[in-house]
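The instructor's notes for this session suggest beginning with a concrete chain rather than abstract definitions. Hand out the sequence below and ask the class to guess, before any prediction is shown, which regions might be ordered.
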Amino acid sequence: MAREILGVDRYFMYDMFKEFLVAGAVKACGSNSWRATPELKEYLKARREAERNANSTE
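After discussion, reveal the predicted structure:
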């Protein structure tokens, strides 16, 4: 599904997975998928909140 949304082939998706895994941003989940690490989830949550706060002050 993600490949379709992003419009990439399976080889590029695999390369992205390897880079995310090496960076510690994701962890393998099963044989064909991954999940964000708790640290990445916290980072993304903080970033979304910061964007909301910035937009609400405009």
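Then share the key points. The mean pLDDT is 89. The chain has one domain: 2-56.
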